[in-house]
Amino acid sequence: MSFVSLDNLVVEYGDFRALDGLTLEIDSGAVGLLGPNGAGKSTLLKTLLGFLRPRSGTVSVMGFRLPEQALEVRRRMGYMPEKEVSSPRVSAVSFLAYCGRMFGMTRSDALERAHEVLNYVGLGEARYRLMQEYSTGMLQRVKLAQALIHDPKLLFLDEPTNGLDPDGRLEMLALIQDIVARRKVTVLLSSHLLPDVQQVCQYVIMLNRGKVIRHGPLEELIRPLDRRYEIGVRPGDEQKLESAVSGVGWSFHRHPGNGYFVVDLPEKAGCQDLFRLALNVGVQIRHCVPVRTTLESVFLDSLEETGTESMHAGI
Amino acid sequence: MPVFEQTYRSFEGGPPLRWRWRFVAAQELRVLAVSRVFKFLVFLGGLHYLFRVLQIVAYDIVAQDPNNPLAPLLRQADMFYISGQTFYDFINFQLSLMFVTLLYAGSGMICNDIRNNLPEIYFSKPLRWYDYLLGKFLALFLVGFFLTAVMALLLILQHALMSPSWKVVGDCLNWAGGSLGYAAAAVVPASLFILLCSSLVNGQNYAAITVIMALIANTALAAMFAETLRYQNWFLFSLPVAVGHVGEKLFRLARPQIALTVPWTWSLLYVAVFSLLCLLWLAFRIRKMEVAT
Asked: For A83-92, A283-292, B213-222, which range has the lowest pLDDT when averaged over its residues?
């Protein structure tokens, strides 16, 4: 059974169509929801929580239909919103215990779990301080902790690394990876930061203007290109390789970042032909890997294919 | 270095959830209880209560004791006499304090949540808009009720227990009913209106100012109509006057101060309709937080 199932989902804000006929099945694991600002990522999450009523189409989460069974869904899933959340006049422990009570925990259970989850997200002794004294990074951790308080099997994370410094970002991503790997939680991670999705997710859904423009397992999306190889040679052999490759008419260029040669082999040639050529001219190959497409290039290609210009700054 | 060195336990889910509003109310009261300003306001209410406790002791014990040298003096002093007017005056005084306390406690209850983006968190949990609304209202209602009706009931109980005559018990029951009714007629619309203003504006101070301005405007308009049209019953449209009118009738005061000739049920109806309108508007606002479209 899919965790999330959408069939021809349409959500509108007045005249503006935010989600336009979405049909999707989301299974277990870490799923990335990618798209530029305004693509419909947050709208989709809010629809899955029952905050937004679809104009048409059907939505079911963990077998429960929305919006009719929104309460059942909310009992079983955790949600970390995008916006900064704070309850300034209470401590994180008190806030989390309150969240736990909403799930039907007894007071002592809620308090115990609040401590466990705050330990897990690394808030330490700061958990007793009033939340008005917290930094953005600490508030992000509290947001994640409140989503985990009832041990959900499904977690919606909306831009979880927003406003975090590089260390904080890495820690947050490590936490999410741990939640997926160790706790076996299905995570739907919405982000416009491709590296975040690439680091955490196994499956990617790309949205733009309310439509799915591409989706599939990350491994398939960024699969190795059949005939493009990145070649590194012994220092001093570069000229020899250049002249040999251009001599046989293969196209190549130097990678601007690492200085490796990127060689495109012709249709009938294989990797062994490349090594044979190097052997013939006395070039020692020290690095040879097939070039993979990046998530960024896949995303940009998908945008171009759907005829929409890129309107994203951070991608 | 991973920040997570330990994990958290599994949770199989709690029992079926009922009366979730009580968690909201309890949390609001918990937050209020640590506020110094709130504690000070309640303390002021307590001082007035203590003064009335002494008054009852003076009247019921000292003044009724023929051997006490102060008895004749106390019997002659009107201010120590205990009647329905005593409890009406007590609640009347407490109402001002109750209003200030509710204004402090309630004006930020919803707008601060909205500003801190908390509704999104709360409604992503199994909490419905009516639980949220009822919880907030209940927290304010309990504070207001404690400062007025509960204290008045304690005074009435004290009077019933200390009074040498059993005849006073019947009166005490009437006064207890009057206290409950009068306090409810004041606390319910005040709580709902303060919460409504809190849901309409985006700051605690703005909400408090809106409440005060609306109250002043309401009374000023009622007075203007009454003076211009030379018809005193227009004063009914002032909410404080309508509430006072209800209170006077519930306590069956011998010398009512509010000179309205319309039946007191009209005042009660006005208060009830006002409360209902506030409730509906508030429900609309809060439901929109949970279900945006």
From this structure: A283-292
Any domain includes A307: no
What are the CA-CA distances from residue B242 to residues B209, B235, B238, B257, B262 (Å)?
Answer: 22, 8, 6, 12, 11
Please report the pLDDT score of residue A242 as a whole number.
85
Q: How far apart are CA A152 and CA B120, in angstroms?
A: 17
| Arithmetic mean of pLDDT over chain B | 89
What is the ipTM score, two decimals? 0.84
Q: Which residues in chain A have their CB less than 8 angstroms from residue B293's CB?
A: 11-13, 52-53
* Tens-digit pLDDT profile for residues A93-120: 999 999 998 888 888 889 999 999 998 8
CATH value at residue A287:
3.30.70.100
Phi, psi of A62 (to 5 degrees): 50, 35
Chain A residues 238-297 with a CB less than 8 Å from chain B = none
CB-CB neighbors (< 8 A) of A99 in chain B: 121, 125
H/E segment holding residue B104: helix B84-106
Percent of chain B that is helix, strand, coil (3-state, to 5) = 75, 0, 25
Distance CA A26, CA B215 (A): 54
- Do residues A156 and A31 both lie within one domain? yes
Of all residues in chain B, the one with the smallest CA distance to A123 is B3
Tell whether the torsion through CA atoms of A196, A199, A201 and A203 is positive or negative.
positive
Condensed to tens digits (0 to 9), the pLDDT of residues A112-165 reads: 999 999 988 888 888 899 999 999 889 999 999 999 998 898 999 998 998 888
How many domains does the structure of chain A reveal?
2
Q: How far is CA B75 from the centre of its chain?
A: 33
As a whole number of angstroms, the distance between CA B60 and CA B52 comes to 12
A237: which 2 tokens? 């052999």
Nearest-Cα residue of chain A relative to residue B118: A85
Quick one: pLDDT at residue A262?
85
pTM of structure: 0.84
Query: Which residues constitute the domain of residue A91?
Result: 4-220
Query: Hey, where are the domains in chain B?
Result: 21-290
